[in-house]
Amino acid sequence: MTEDSKPAPGKASEKQQPGKQPEPGKQPEPGKQPGPGKQPESAKKTTDTLSSILRTVKIILALGFIAALLAGSWLGWVHWQKWAAGADKSQIQLTNLRDSIDSIQRQYSLDQKQQAQQSQEFQQLITDLQLRSNAQGRRLAELGSTSRSDWLLAEAVYLTRLANQRLQTERRTKNSLALLSNADLILQELDDPDLTPARSALAADITALRLAGEVDVEGIYLELTSLVNSVDQLSIISVPAQPEMEVQSSAESSSDNSSDKRAESPAPESVLAGFSHKVAQLIRVRQRSQPIEPMLLPEEETLVRQNIRLMLEQAQSALLREQQVIYNQSIGKAQSWLAQYFQLNPSAQVLTERLSELAGTQVVQQLPDINTSLEAIETAVVLRQSRLVDKTKLETQK
User: Fold this and answer.
1) Domain with 64 in it
2) Is the whole model's pTM more than 0.70, yes or no?
């Protein structure tokens, strides 16, 4: 910039400030152009207007941005609330879905276990049915090939088994002996050399039954019953006093007669003989091995009879139970009471003798073991069936 264009120092205050309107009436001098630092007033107005418009636009833009920001924030918050509600609902649905899946899995596990158990039971049922079918097939094959000898062997097995059962239940050898004899007759009818061991076992068991004997329990029991009934008929006999008085009166009459005779014939030999005869009639000597018991009162007599009856009934019970010691002791007590209180009774003597015979009876039935014959016949049946099965297999293979 040149020196001419520089303003004067005194006129610095006169310089127009920016934005200051020029004075009216004053026009710039013609032929003079404003300096480069000076602008015309219209331009200044335009600039001011533009700046105000810009400021207004900026304010509007700021307000619009704030409003848009607030609206966006509000919309975002609303959407966030909706999303949060949807997320909670989705979480609840997810939880319910997981519970449903867990319940379905548990139900599936239970169904699997039930199916496995049912499958196992069904498999076991199929196995049982197969076993039964095989057994029925074998049974049908056996029935198809069963002959008369097989039926007779089955009957012999049944008879021997029945003989064992009757021996243990009845405690008597008679029926078992008859059953084993019938089984031996069946084996004899078959006439098979393979059955020789079975017949030998049958013969041994039959011999054992015959040697064991049989206790006549019914006979002994009935006899004891009759003895019990006869106890009430026994009477305790007492020594009569009337015969002695008659003896004394006869002695007195004989003494009177003898005195009359003495008066008629007073011989010394006759007197001595008459005296000895009179003394012999007055004195009697009786010998007894046992002392005579005193007379019993009616109540005591009833008690004695009841005790004897009780001992005989106890002997019956011991007979049925095969208790030899109790049986002998009961009969012994009954004998002792009969001998003590019924000494002068002939019926009691007969009863005592019969009890002595019963006391020597064996009441325990000896039972032999007859299982050998049953085992031998069953073994023969098994061997016969095995040979039949082997024969069937060979025929099937051919």
Assistant:
1) 50-144
2) no
